[in-house]
Amino acid sequence: MHTLSRKQREIQQREQQILAMARPMLVRDGYAGLSMDRLAVEMEYAKGTLYNHFPNKEEIVAALALESLELRRQMFEQASTLSDNSRKRMMAIGAACEKYAIECQQHFAVELMLRNAIIWEKASEQRQQLIRTCELRAMGVVAGVVRDAVALGDLHLPEMTPEEFVFGFWSLTFGSHVLIASSPSLPDIGVNQPVRSIRYHGWTLMNGYGWQPLMSFEESDRCMHDLAERISIGVQH
Amino acid sequence: MHTLSRKQREIQQREQQILAMARPMLVRDGYAGLSMDRLAVEMEYAKGTLYNHFPNKEEIVAALALESLELRRQMFEQASTLSDNSRKRMMAIGAACEKYAIECQQHFAVELMLRNAIIWEKASEQRQQLIRTCELRAMGVVAGVVRDAVALGDLHLPEMTPEEFVFGFWSLTFGSHVLIASSPSLPDIGVNQPVRSIRYHGWTLMNGYGWQPLMSFEESDRCMHDLAERISIGVQH
DNA sequence: GACACTTTGTGACGCGACGTCAATAATTGA
DNA sequence: TCAATTATTGACGTCGCGTCACAAAGTGTC
C-alpha cells in the first residue's frame, strides 16, 4: 500500500517531468525538432515508457499547449480584477495579451501549434475537451467584463453578442502578435512600432463604440503600461 | 538549337507541372502529408528529377505560397480600383480579404504555411526575396489607398505611418480569419457570426478614425457585398 | 520466504519519409 | 559517327514515429 502509492506518485510525477523536459526542446527546435527518441534518451527512459504516458507526440504538444493556455487564462483573470473602471478592465486584458505574447513568447508559440489541424486532430478527445473548456473560460472572463460594462451603462452594444464583440479585440491582438512573431521584418514594410500602433487601434476601436470613460491616448497608453506591470506571470504547478 | 529549346521548354514547364501536382496534395494532406516519394510517383518521374527542380520540400511549399500570395496581391490591386470613394476603396480591400480567406481557403492556408519558421528558413534566399517583394507590393497598394484618403482630406492620420495604420486592419482581418479557420467551433464560445462581426468592427474602427464619408453599417454592409461580387479571382498563369 | 500474477519498463523492429549520389540514359555539337 | 555534356534514375543512408514480444519489478497470498 505504502510502496504502491509511492510508485504511483512516481509515475504521476514522471508525466510532469516529461513535459518539463519536452517544453524546451519544443520551443528550441519546433514541432518537427521535438524527437521522441531524443526525449527518451534525455529522460533516461526507454521510448516505450514515454508511450505509456502519452499515446503519441501530438498529445505531448497538446498537453504543453494546454499548460500555456492555462497560464494565459490566469493572466486574464488577474487582469480583469485590477480596476473598477470597466474600460480599464478591458485595457488590462489587452495588456495581458501583450505581456503574454511578448514576455511569454514560448508559451504563445506553443499555444499557436494547437491551431495546426494535424496536432489538434491527433490529440485525445479528453485533452481536446480540456482545451475547449479552458478557452471557453478565458473567453468568459473577457465577455464578463463586457457584460459588466453594459450593465454599468459604460458601453452600449450594437446587435452583437458580448462574445462577438470580444472576438474583434481578440482578432486584433491575436492577429497582430502572430504577424509580429512571424514577419521577419515588419519595419521593412513600414511598420515601425507594431505594438504601439495596435494599442492605438484598440483605443480607437473602444472610442468607436463609445466605451466610457473616454480618455486621451496618452493617458490610455500610460495606463496600459501600469496595468501590465501589475500582471504577474503565473507559475506552473 | 530547335530541339534544345524544346527540351528546355519541357524542363521549364515541368516546374509548373510539379507545382500543379503538389498543390492539391498539400491542400488535402497538409505539409506533413505532402510526400516527395508520392509526388514523384504521381508525376511519373524519379525523385531525383524533382530535386533537380527544387532543392527541398520546403522550396516547393514556398513556391506554392508565393503563387497564392500573388493571387491575393492581384485581388487587392483590383479591389483598390473599384471605387473613387476613398473609404469604399478601403472597404473593397477588406472585401478582398474576406473573399480570399473564404473562397480561396486553400490559398489562404498555403500562404499561412510560410509563417512557419521551418518552412521559411529552408526556402532559398531568392524565393524569400520574391515573397518579401510581393508582400511589400500588397502592403503598398493598401497604404496607397490610405495616402490618397489623407491627401483628399477624407482621413486624418494620427502620429502613425500609413503602413502602421494599415497594420491594424491587417491584424483584424488576418487574425479573424486565422481564428475562424482554426477554431473548430466558434459558435460554441458564443461567436455566431464571426464574419459579420468583423465587418462591424472594421466599420467601427473606420468611424473611430473619422474616415469620410460616414455611412450607416447597413449601407456599408451592402456595399461590401457588392464590392466582393466585383472582385474576380485571378487565374494562375 | 516462496510463488503465482499483475503491472511496468525495454529496445529492436517495421515502416515510411527526406535527400544523396554513383551509375545510366539521352542529348548535343562537331 | 562519336565524344562530351547534361539529365534521369532509384537504391541507399539516415532519421523519426509508434509497436510489441519479452524482461524486470512490484504485489499479495500462503
Global morphology of chain A: elongated
Largest contact between chains:
A-B, 52 and 52 residues
Contiguous helical run count of chain A: 11
Mean pLDDT of chain A: 95
The largest pleated sheet of chain A is described as: none
Per CATH, the architecture of the largest domain in chain A is Orthogonal Bundle
Walk me through this protein's architecture:
The structure is a homodimer of 237-residue chains. With 237 residues, chain A is an all-alpha fold. The first copy, chain A, folds into two domains: 53 residues, Arc Repressor Mutant, subunit A (Orthogonal Bundle), CATH 1.10.10; 173 residues, Tetracycline Repressor, domain 2. Chain A is built from eleven helices and no strands. The two termini of chain A are 26 Å apart. Chain A binds a DNA duplex (30 and 30 nucleotides) through α1, α2 and α3.
Pick out its properties.
homodimer, 237 residues, mainly alpha, Arc Repressor Mutant, subunit A, Tetracycline Repressor, domain 2, DNA-binding
List the helices and strands and how they pair.
The structure is a homodimer of 237-residue chains.
Chain A: H1 2-33, H2 36-43, H3 47-53, H4 57-79, H5 86-103, H6 105-113, H7 117-122, H8 125-152, H9 162-182, H10 194-208, H11 217-230
The first copy, chain A, binds a DNA duplex (30 and 30 nucleotides) through residues 3-4, 7, 11, 32, 35-38, 40, 45-49, 51-52, 55-57.
